[in-house]
Specification:
heterodimer, A: 450 residues, alpha+beta, 2 domains, 6-stranded mixed sheet, 16 helices, 39% helix, 19% strand, globular, disordered N terminus, B: 446 residues, Cytochrome Bc1 Complex, Chain A, domain 1
Chain lengths: 450, 446
């Protein structure tokens, strides 16, 4: 019936480094007439100093506002003329830009990325108008209590490492940063020797590499960008925070310092998360848009099936340095946060004391490997993964993910759980809502006005 | 040109007739109609050893009894909590041990169940989905917990300026007597009062073979997929259900404005809209292009260029055309600082009035047309993308070659057509405007 028994030919990944240090990764994928181009930079919010929080994200915005050879009003439409999509994102370790379009637009996509690397304009008026756009983005995030709590939890869990500040930045820095700060950051980090260009799709690898040479070969290498040195010291006691703000719903988050992607304990941690809250996979761009299978997980049964919480989720993302494993729960209306927290901590204690069963690990492995298959269904997703793991310094984690998942044992998961889920390693955050004033009585309605 | 599935004459064809496209189509799906009326559409792809299954039942929120809003949505929270053959836990094990996460959603017209599975698990997973659709027990023992989840979700919606603005605008445009004017989750009082018998009756009345469209896309041969669907759904019998009468909403004759202060929030949300057209309207493609130029192309179209790019007022601003079975909404959305609410609304008014007065340029039309035509290969890249295109084509009766014909439909639209669509749909003096968030200025427009 199913035709999966027939062999699938997966093209090898080609990887070359140009003379100026630009790493180029190409994978042919001929199942659709499409190509995806991603240009990655090793710079994220962790690379920002005092007074400059949010600069990487703001720079990302500025890099859509015109270059020497692409007028300002054409940057966004230039790829849509091919029916293509484009986007970009900034997170704690990386900034990246992408285009996916029919493969006949490959040259156009490479042209855009080469322009973006070397020739963005940073007109002072554009810097100013984007300041208010970004402040609007920050305020939109603050409207969501869950997002607000997440930001405060991370800021509390880290006291030294630059992961502590949000990617969007602190408001005072956004209000005071100047055009020179933005442009200086751009010139420091947007050099070929700090970038990875990934092409996946219906292309000829040799020809594609020649096209890359043509567009990027003349861009000079820059000085090696500065790297942060401060590591987060070990946490020595539980930290807590409570946000009291008007709202309708109570939220709980518990964060634990967790292994970085390149750490041997990363996959045991991914398996542990799957046992607790459901398997998500390791694709930041895609995995988290599809809810995990979680009906039989420990925390769903303990919190959702008992009616204490309406949702529970876990987040463990591949990062360059040790970040956090964060478990989030939404208390059902009328359930006190203390009840939700006490049940949740009881579950953490249970897994610390008794570990996990071989059957749980087996199910988690099956789910995680299925997720790897589901996540590799588009040139955009495949290209994301190749560039993402290269940028955080561990391409082998993606390449060998299936085997590494298979190699995880219940003993490894138990050992990790004992250390990671300890009281002294955790930060507990509450969003404890204050009653909302009866705004409804202040609704203003005007009808039938010409 | 297009019709809802209930009037699709091919559904009456007895037996499992397989239709193939009349002309070579780029996608080339296969469509079969089972003897009981279930429509099965399949497309074999070989990219990954996986299959996407999408089930769409014509039993969306419009099927809520008028005195029980939210019933269909609450049913969606209970339908996979037990069947005649398996308990909730056994269902979860049958799906989740294979890495399958079942997503169940309710929109205005459809109740959908969807998942991806490994191709080796396809038969077993489809069998489980068949049980869930045909013979759920809708257990009373689960009602209290799932009700609590829905009540919490309603409370979260009440606290979200973005969602609140949407709900208020739909109520303003359609009135709460029209199914489009009511939120799918229902109200606190309707959910608190809901009894299990009501949900079971709803399932009995609305879940019938002639209302089901099954789409299967992925690493399984089309004949095998149709055979598996026949095993899962072929024996099911139930009388055809009566369609919910949907009146055409009245067109507004004046501008309306509603301010809902939410002073605990940081950003204000604007929802600005009109009742637009049905999907079957002959001006649909002109309206689609008009909307793309107004509020989509290159990050928000003309609205994005004015409000985000030139004035720096909003992180998000866009417009969306939601042509549906009857006249759906055309909606402009923006999130702005409270100090910029009035300026943003004035800019929306200005852009709409400009398009009504002057229409669009040749270049704008060419770019948006090329974008919409060129987007189809991307939409058809993944199994989930193909399934979504096929379900949409089935629901609106667009045909098996829609992916190819879209080019012709869009190419036939002229600048005058787009201008006429703008004049018909975008009159600011008849707009409904809702503002939610930290804004408390009722009289600014006076």
């Amino acid at each position: 019936m199913a035709s999966s028994a027939e062999a699938r030919v997966v093209a090898p990944v080609r990887s070359v480094t140009l003379g100026n240090g630009l790493k180029v990764i190409v994978q042919e994928e001929h199942t659709a007439p499409l190509a995806s181009v991603w240009c990655w930079y090793k710079v994220g919010s962790k690379d920002e100093g005092q007074g400059l929080t949010g600069v990487s994200h703001w720079v990302e915005h500025m890099n859509f506002k015109g270059t020497t050879n692409i007028p300002r009003d054409q940057v966004k439409g230039i790829i849509e003329q091919f029916g293509g999509s484009w986007n970009g994102y900034t997170w704690i370790d990386q900034t990246t830009y992408l285009e996916t379009a029919t493969s006949d637009a490959l040259d156009r996509m490479l042209f855009i990325e080469s322009e973006r690397m070397a020739r963005c304009l940073y007109h002072p008026d554009d810097c100013e108008s984007e300041r208010t756009v970004i402040i609007s983005e920050l305020q939109g995030g603050e409207n969501d209590p869950d997002q607000l709590l997440d930001q405060e939890l991370v800021a509390t869990a880290f006291k030294a490492h630059a992961y502590r500040h949000p990617t969007i930045g602190w408001i005072a820095d956004l209000e005071s940063m100047a055009r020179e700060d933005l442009y200086g950051h751009y010139r420091r980090y947007y050099v070929p020797n700090n970038a990875t260009l990934v092409i996946v799709g219906d292309v000829d690898a040799d020809a594609a590499i020649r096209q890359v040479e043509r567009h990027f070969g003349q861009i000079p290498a820059g000085a090696e960008p500065p790297r942060i040195r401060t590591a987060e010291p070990e946490q020595t006691g539980e930290r807590r925070l409570t946000i009291r703000k008007e709202g309708t719903t109570a939220y709980l988050k518990v964060g634990f310092h967790a292994p970085a992607a390149g750490d041997p304990e990363f996959f045991p941690a991914i398996v542990l998360d799957a046992v607790l809250t459901g398997a998500k996979g390791i694709n930041l761009w895609f995995s988290f848009r599809v809810p995990p299978p979680q009906r039989r997980t420990r925390l769903y049964r303990a919190l959702v099936d008992t009616g204490l919480a309406s949702t529970v989720s876990g987040g463990l993302l591949p990062t360059a340095h040790p970040f956090l494993y964060i478990v989030s729960a939404t208390a059902t209306t009328g359930t006190p946060l203390t009840t939700v927290e006490s049940r949740l901590l009881q579950e953490f204690d249970g897994v610390r004391q008794q570990g996990v069963s071989a059957a749980e690990v087996h199910v988690a492995q099956t789910q995680l490997k299925a997720r790897l298959v589901f996540d590799a269904d588009s040139v955009t997703n495949i290209a994301h993964q190749l560039g993402y793991f290269e940028t955080i310094g561990c391409p082998e984690v993606y390449r060998d993910a299936s085997a590494r998942i298979d190699a995880v044992t219940p003993e490894q998961v138990a050992a990790l759980a004992r250390r990671m889920l300890s009281e002294s390693n955790r930060t507990v955050g509450w969003f404890d809502p204050l009653p909302v004033p009866d705004d409804v009585s202040r609704r203003h309605s005007e009808h039938e006005r010409a | 040109m297009s019709t809802p599935p209930s009037s699709d004459s091919t559904r009456a064809t007895p037996g499992a007739t397989v239709q193939t496209p009349l002309a070579p189509a780029r996608l080339g799906p296969v469509r079969a109609i089972l003897a009981n009326g279930v429509v099965v559409t399949t497309k074999e792809t070989r990219k990954t050893p996986a299959v996407t299954i999408s089930l769409a039942m014509s039993a969306g929120a419009v099927c809520d009894p008028p005195d029980a809003p939210g019933a269909v949505h609450l049913l969606s929270r209970l339908i996979d909590r037990g069947t005649r053959r398996r308990s909730a836990d056994e269902l979860a094990e049958a799906l989740e041990s294979r890495g399958v996460s079942l997503t169940i959603n309710v929109n205005r017209h459809q109740f959908t169940l969807g998942c991806a599975c490994l191709s080796a698990d396809f038969d077993a997973v489809l069998e489980v989905l068949g049980e869930i659709v045909i013979e759920p027990t809708v257990p009373d023992a689960e009602l209290a917990v799932r009700r609590g989840e829905v009540l919490t979700a309603i409370a979260q919606d009440e606290d979200s300026p973005y969602i609140k603005a949407l709900h208020e605008l739909m109520a303003l445009l359609y009135g709460t007597d029209h199914p489009y004017g009511r939120p799918a989750k229902g109200t606190v009082s309707s959910i608190e009062a809901m009894k299990i018998d009501r949900l079971r009756a709803l399932h009995r009345e609305r879940f019938v073979p002639s209302a089901l469209s099954v789409v299967i896309v992925g690493d399984v041969r089309s004949d095998s997929a149709v055979a598996a669907a026949t095993r899962a759904f072929g024996e099911w019998t139930a009388p055809t259900t009566r369609a919910v009468p949907l009146p055409s909403p009245p067109r507004a004759t004046a501008r309306r404005r509603l301010v809902v202060p939410m002073m605990n929030k940081s950003q204000a949300d604007i929802a600005y809209g009109f009742v637009s057209i049905a999907r079957s309207d002959p001006t649909y493609y002109a309206s689609l292009l008009m909307n793309n130029i107004l509020g989509q192309y290159a990050l928000g179209g003309r609205l994005g260029d004015s409000i985000r790019e030139r004035q720096g007022m909003a992180y998000y601003v866009s417009s969306a055309l939601d042509a549906s079975v009857v006249e759906g909404p055309l909606m402009v959305r923006a999130g702005v600082s409270p100090a910029n609410v009035d300026r943003a609304i004035a800019s929306i008014d200005e852009e709409l009035a400009r398009m009504c007065a002057d229409g669009v340029t040749d270049r704008e039309l060419a770019e948006s047309r090329q974008y919409l035509i060129g987007s189809m290969p991307r939409a058809l890249e993944t199994n989930a993308g193909i399934a979504s295109v096929l379900q949409n084509a089935e629901f609106f009766g667009l045909g098996l070659e829609y992916d190819v014909r879209l080019r012709d439909y869009l190419s036939a639209v002229t600048r005058d057509d787009v201008h006429a669509a703008a004049q018909r749909l975008l009159d600011p003096s008849r707009a409904a405007v809702v503002i939610t968030g930290p804004y408390d200025q009722p009289d600014r427009e006076l």
